[in-house]
Amino acid sequence: HVEVLIDVDTGVDDALALSFAALHPDINLRAVTCVAGNASLDNVYRNTRAVLSIAGAGHVPVARGASRPLIAAPRDAAHVHGHNGLAGLELAVPEADGSDIHAVELMRREILASPTSPTLIALAPLTNVALLLRMYPEVAARLERIVFMGGSASIGNATPVAEFNSWADPEAVAIVVDSSIPTVMYGLDVFYSAAVSEDDVAALERSSRPVAQLCAKLFRHMAVKDSDQKRIPAGTIAALGDAGTVCAVVDPAGLTTHRFPVSVCTDGSRSRGQTIVDRRSHRGESELNGASLGQPVDVALAVDGARLAQLFRR
Ligand code: BDR
Ligand code: CA
User: Residues with Cβ within 6 A of ligand 1?
Assistant: First the structure.
């Protein structure tokens, strides 16, 4: 069993990730926290509760967190995720439980209540996680690790060099990376490489389970965009995206990581939001002149995409 907290900006692929987390028997999903990112905080909160309910996890506590990044202006991704952040699907949204607990307070509560050190999986701009680290550093230090979807050691998507989550709130990435909590970066180097086939999606469509049918619809929505951009492997039709991050927590053998110093560009230049992964084996002139290389992060550089896709389908 892994005790897990998930921070989301649901978000089509966040919905896939939540569905998988809700159903996998090795995951004890303790809490889900919402942050503005792919969609507005209100839409994220609604989408998240709707998806958890369909996945049979309506009992998992959900809380609203930051409605915008720490410093930057909020910018959504409606062109990718649809006007409501969930491919335009209108799902039944269960009543909120009426508790008004903030995302950071829910994370704190569940970290303290967890029988073993929990893993925090962040699939969105890192604003809530950064706030937790600033407000309750001693509580955050109890985390087993932070596994975040974001960043890149190669090309970006939001900009030529910056991945969306990292670009949306670079200052939050800096806070997370500079913390001494063990951190795994599941970035764009692997994000598009774990993807489902037509056969996988057809199997989900044939299932009588509403959660499987929901996942199929979400994959169909992503299929157009992923194949358009030619970023997914031959023979597949849609990336697992954020869901791959959760699959890799359950099945770490599907992921190859290397520990490198990582920093993030937080200035206003065109490289704002770029994660700078130092993959060199030698020191260069910049450090000899005192520049910092960043903190060690386990950066995912390769993924067994077929293996993770099969795990998701099962
Ligand atoms: C990330 O941004 C969103 O589009 C996805 O949900 C994922 O978290 C990819 O850059
Ligand atoms: Ca996301």
Answer: 11, 13-14, 38, 77, 80, 123-124, 149, 157, 163-165, 241-242
CA separation for the pair 107, 147 (Å, rounded)? 15
Q: Using CA atoms, how far apart are residues 279 and 81, in angstroms rounded to an integer?
A: 33
Show the tokens assigned to 254: 């599907």
Are 283 and 234 in contact, with CB atoms under 8 Å apart? no
Q: Which residues are CB-neighbours of 77 under 8 A, at least 6 positions away?
A: 37, 38, 39, 164
Pocket test for ligand 1, best of 10, 12, 13 (most atoms within 8 A of CB): 13
pLDDT digits (tens, 9 = 90+) for 179-202: 999 999 999 999 999 999 999 999
Of the candidates 109, 127, 103, the residue with the CA atom closest to the CA atom of residue 3:
109
Q: Over the stretch 80-132, which tens digit does the pLDDT of each residue have?
A: 878 888 988 889 898 887 788 999 999 999 999 999 999 999 999 999 999 99
Dist. CA 180–CA 175, nearest whole Å: 10
Please work out, in degrees rounded to the nearest 5, the angle formed at the alpha carbon of residue 105 by the alpha carbons of 100 and 110. 110
Comparing CA positions, the residue from 191, 127, 125 lying closest to residue 156 is 191
Give Cα separations from 114 to 4, 31, 111 (angstroms).
9, 11, 5
Tokens of 232: 């997914």
Query: Model-level pTM greater than 0.80?
Result: yes
Q: If you compute the radius of gyration of the chain from its CA atoms, what whole number of angstroms results? A: 18
